[in-house]
Fold each of these.
Amino acid sequence: MDPPDGDVRHMSAAIRTPLMIVGAGPTGLAAALFLSRRGVPVRIIDAATQPTTTSKALLVNPRSLEILGAYGVAARIIAEGYEVMGVTMHRGGREVVSIDLQRELRSQLPIGLAQARTEALLTEALQAKGIHVERGVTLQTLQQDAEQVTVTLQHADGGTQTVQAPLVFGADGARSAVRHALGIDFAGDALPEPWQLWDLRLRTSLDRQRVHIGLVPDGFLFLMHLQAGVWRVIGNGADPLAQLPGDSVAGEVQWQSQFHIAHRLADKFSVGRVALGGDAAHIHSPLGARGMNLGIEDAWVFADCAVDAMAGKLERMQEYAELRQPVDRQVVRNVAAVTRLMRGRPTALRWLRDNLAPQAIKLAPVRHRLLQTMSGLDHPLRTRC
Ligand SMILES: Cc1cc2nc3c(=O)[nH]c(=O)nc-3n(C[C@H](O)[C@H](O)[C@H](O)COP(=O)(O)OP(=O)(O)OC[C@H]3O[C@@H](n4cnc5c(N)ncnc54)[C@H](O)[C@@H]3O)c2cc1C
């Protein structure tokens, strides 16, 4: 997908002041890349002194690859990662569902690649445009008037700085300081149980190019190959590693974490000259693999709106909110519904899941809808209302 033509020729000298991007996760990096390609000056800061090294999101979906195609990043993701060929569902020691993505998807296949590598490739593309993430720089306060946004930044050496920006994009994650500064509510709910996560060596005959889902008596299991015999395992049962499918045996652990799943959506996606994107605007369960991908899509739409806003059409900031909030709300709802069904509790829902879900997925329309959600192709990508 080619980037839409921006018309930055009409920017006055005053608005050559850089647009401020807060947060250099995938959402902020992607926004910086899209904007700089269209001639918008950007400044991107991140509180962390080093880039992330944890794998987190493992799946780059076809929608993100379509968006990143014109920037050379998709080709590098495809070259470095692997094509995910299918999804297999296991229950009671046997395969109950097997989906062949090559046959079902009429798009590029999703690519398996650790989020840290996706971020590194975005960063390299940005550096090639002469833009470097300013690390160890934390946004502390934000205020705006009709003309500009004023932020205070704290640097790692303890120094503070007050700077002005014509627009700010808050891509600073689930605990977003930008969202707090705007007083925007982040309503939703959380599942009570902790989910455990491992990146570990696995001795297994499971197909490495497929995502594996386990329907186990006390919960849900997710397995996906990361690289060189290291797999991601996620589960919400009491002892997920004791219930691995097939002949799988857990080995050396490389990374272990625990998290709670919440489904939340920001009440507003923009206020005046400031907008939110990615986890700052929405969070949901990793089932469906949408978090990082939805952030990249927010960044794409924001960039298109911000090019016009920088040229004086400030109403495009509100249009960004109108374009993204309904789409992101629907994705959060869908992912929440699938997660509630698949998590395997309470007992009545588990019975439904174990007995009806595998049969339902065999029905073409149900399977199609699930795969569209996983691919990010469940809605048109619009940059104008
Ligand atoms: C275990 C796990 C598995 C996941 N699996 C998937 C998956 O398969 N597919 C998928 O699409 N998603 C997945 N996700 C979700 C995905 O990781 C997130 O949705 C994604 O990282 C969001 O990107 P972001 O850029 O919006 O926010 P973040 O990645 O959270 O980045 C925000 C950045 O802002 C910085 N920051 C925060 N506050 C400030 C401040 N005040 N000033 C300056 N900088 C600040 C932070 O240091 C951080 O670098 C998973 C997440 C987890 C935890």
Amino acid sequence: MAIQWINGHIVRKQIWYEGLFTLTVDCPGVAPFECGQFLQVGVPLADKHLHRPYSVASPHGDQLEFFIVRVADGELTPRLWEMNLGDTIDISSKATGGFTLEHAPAADAIWLLATGTGLAPYIAMLRDSRIWNSYRDIVLVHGVRHVTDLAYTDELESLVRSSDGRLRLVPVVSRDRPEHGFHGRITTAIESGALEEIADLPLSPHSSAVMMCGNPLMLDDVEAILNARGMRKHKRNEVGHYVVERYW
Ligand SMILES: Cc1cc2nc3c(=O)[nH]c(=O)nc-3n(C[C@H](O)[C@H](O)[C@H](O)COP(=O)(O)OP(=O)(O)OC[C@H]3O[C@@H](n4cnc5c(N)ncnc54)[C@H](O)[C@@H]3O)c2cc1C
């Protein structure tokens, strides 16, 4: 079915670091969606409509946020990076995708694993009540290369402070040594036991649900590690432990 486009207007551009940014788009008319779903974002060109899927980094509303990284040699993201306040941007009118809390397993604790802009769906979820009503503990693990790639830090740290100990934030930085968190990769942090030590929670099939989002290499590696711990992919007709969203 053809995508119905809504003409959005950029009302805010937050630059976290060169090439890493959040666009807030005024686009009333997007149909209600669940946190974790994605919309198509794009621009019309002379010969085609250029668009890609982006997780919405905010709950449903008239203004929606998209957390984006410019991909070198990418077709769309260098164009999005050049956009500014007042510019027009096309947003699909209906969100899709099953990477939502409705499709995540029940557990005491939920581990939200992200690389890079894979953080976006979790920002939306943490701003909404559902995750807080569904899980006692929440561990947000953000894997990046450099400390400068750690976006949304002020908002997340403020949520940690107001969460009464329920939200843990674990930055995992591979090429710099972070002030807090883990220096290395998410996979090493899990395998070595360091992640559970930092979060002060077990990552186990008995008490944990896992959502993971972003770079497909990280996702494949983490899936293998979780499988070895007796955890399984959660499916519609088969209760498991983790759900996955691949960005490419
Ligand atoms: C469900 C879904 C949700 C997504 N949500 C987001 C989001 O919230 N934020 C976001 O920035 N991207 C997101 N993406 C990725 C996005 O759709 C585009 O693929 C990305 O922005 C590159 O577009 P492009 O036209 O610039 O690159 P293209 O010209 O399409 O080149 C794509 C190639 O660049 C590489 N690539 C794609 N994304 C990245 C990346 N993040 N880092 C490094 N290499 C990459 C891959 O090798 C891919 O084959 C999502 C993808 C999916 C499937």
Amino acid sequence: MSTKDNQKVYFGDKKVTKQNKKDGVESIFTKVSENYDLMNDLMSAGMHRFWKKSFIDAANIKKNENCLDLAAGTGDIAKLISKKVRGKTVYLCDQNNEMIEKAKERSLNEGFYQKCFFDVSSAEKLPYKKETFDHVFISFGFRNFSDKKGSLKEIKRVLKKGGKLHILEFSKSQGENFSKIYDFYSYNFIPTIGDLVTGDRKSYEYLVKSIRTHEDQEAMLSLFEDAGYLDCDYKNIFKGIVALHRGTK
Ligand SMILES: C[S@@+](CC[C@H](N)C(=O)[O-])C[C@H]1O[C@@H](n2cnc3c(N)ncnc32)[C@H](O)[C@@H]1O
């Protein structure tokens, strides 16, 4: 293992090796996959649906464009993309097999399977040829990556020239009073809802901590620019609880 691989990264609020983070994230998403969609609705009071729709609407996807839903989870983003394209041009990739199996089942039930390809792989080593995609989307997955800089480089490899990376992620809430309410809600209610619905308090404590230790809006902008993306920007959604980040190859 190289020195770079031994560098410590945040897993929740603890610093661990990249491999330990990868294993920890894998174990959490295997545990939460069963109730993933229900918990998203409960924790965000359904607002994640609106955030995700605005995320995809803002991308201005053309009917024949190749799109990658990376860290696809159960396929919320792929489903929205499938409504914008005509052919089989939607790729779902996630490192967690249980999540991808849920996405497959759901796409069959909800009628978008025929537009999709499914892959189990990590963002740090994508199973695609260089310059394959017009758009790469990551929704609420990036903060879990064990090698954020490496993944940005790898995504750039698979983007076409002029192709765009779009990341929707939790970020730093704006305004002192609002942030206090948000902190109270997330530290107290999210783990409790998680415990009541799934019996797994720890995974939801990880969720809250992983949001707090993730790069804020400006730090994300620097990560994009350092990785060589052009025209980088971000837009706060819901007072910065969530931010939409964009860059072009
Ligand atoms: C919070 S879920 C988001 C799922 C979906 N995109 C959504 O918005 O509902 C995060 C997903 O990221 C995946 N993930 C975490 N680290 C990853 C990595 N390094 N490469 C690929 N997928 C990863 C997890 O397996 C999980 O399915």
